[in-house]
């Protein structure tokens, strides 16, 4: 949903929603949603054997490259590094 659609459903202005997110979640709505998607990707990497391309698409990224860039910023590691460290821990 776009911010405009969310604001219409909530009966609040886009700016009011942004203020509420900042106050209660210390993030913009877009940043908060992105962090949820990245956390979901992290869980899929750790708990499944899905290909990283499939995880990227399943979590709303158009390419594995986009997922990797965002993942590195959020978690200071890459999806591949995380998956490799998970494999090493299981051996």
Q: Please give the count of helices.
A: 6
Q: Give the uncertain stretches in residue-range form.
A: none
What structural category characterises the helix and strand content? mainly alpha
By DSSP, the count of extended strands is 0
Q: Average pLDDT value?
A: 94
Compute the CA-based radius of gyration: 16 Å
In this structure, how is the largest beta sheet organized?
Answer: none
Q: Termini separation (Å)?
A: 42 Å
Helix content: over 70%
Shape assignment: elongated
Beta-strand portion reads: under 5%
Sketch the topology as an H/E string, one letter per element: HHHHHH
List keywords for this structure.
91 residues, mainly alpha, 0% strand, single chain, elongated
Verbal overview:
The protein is elongated. Helices cover 77% and strands 0% of the residues. The protein is mainly α. The protein is built from six helices and no strands. The chain has helices at residues 3-10, 14-25, 29-47, 52-58, 64-75, 79-90. The chain starts with a helix and ends with a helix.
Concise overview:
The protein is built from 6 helices and no strands. With 91 residues, it is mostly helical.
Secondary structure topology:
Elements: H1 3-10, H2 14-25, H3 29-47, H4 52-58, H5 64-75, H6 79-90
Helix pairs in contact: 3-5
